[in-house]
Amino acid sequence: MDESRIEPFRAGLLDWAEDNLRQFPWRDLDASLYEVFVAEFFLTQTPAANVARVYPRFLSEFPSLDAIRCSDVESLVEVIEPLGFYNMRVEALDEIATSYDSLPRDADELTELTRVGDYVANATVCFALDRQVPILDRNVDRVYGRVFGDDWPDTKREQLEFADKVLPPEQARTYNLALLDLGAAVCTPTPKCPECFANRFCDYYETQYAGVDG
């Protein structure tokens, strides 16, 4: 790994975060473990703007696992249907609420819940409990793959190890939020490289824009 890129990327991303983080209710510092979990569970394969439209009503009608457990499936479907994949989501939430009185506070234990993978588990404990853990979704994969080029591993296990090594000490929450937002706003599938802070040391930028300035 070319570690010379790590510190400039960390510092640049945290600086970028000061003015560019998106605002969503599940990102409030006082959001509960349950509230963050619900959001991250819904955000899987669904744009944040769509989740934001459903999220307040869901929490109003189902403020806890107990509320889900005591509800009927039709009520869950009515609220969740606009998000898509509602049959899968309703089935999973119903199974989780039936099996647990409260959500686990450990990422590994969260992955034991129905249809909860590493991303949802790690994002939940990072954003709700300020745990120092990496996150990895398509946006993060794209950002790291472009910035670090061939140093970015191919396997998920190695990618998580890499992402863990890059995390800034004691700042995982802000850093991970910024990583997601950079991938959503700048390092998109059609990237806005000229306006990205990382273009000074980004492998992708160096490859795509070689010789442009000269």
UniProtKB/TrEMBL annotation:
SUPFAM superfamilies: DNA-glycosylase. Coiled coil: none annotated. GO terms for molecular function: 4 iron, 4 sulfur cluster binding; 8-oxo-7,8-dihydroguanine DNA N-glycosylase activity; adenine/guanine mispair binding; metal ion binding; oxidized purine DNA binding; purine-specific mismatch base pair DNA N-glycosylase activity. Pfam families: HhH-GPD. Residues 42-185 form the HhH-GPD domain. InterPro entries: DNA_glycosylase, Endonuclease3_FeS-loop_motif, HhH-GPD_domain, HhH_base_excis_C, MIG/MutY. One of its GO terms (biological process) is mismatch repair. Keywords: DNA damage, DNA repair, Glycosidase, Hydrolase, Iron, Iron-sulfur, Metal-binding. Its cofactor is [4Fe-4S] cluster. Belongs to the Nth/MutY family. This is A/G-specific DNA-adenine glycosylase. It comes from Halogeometricum rufum.
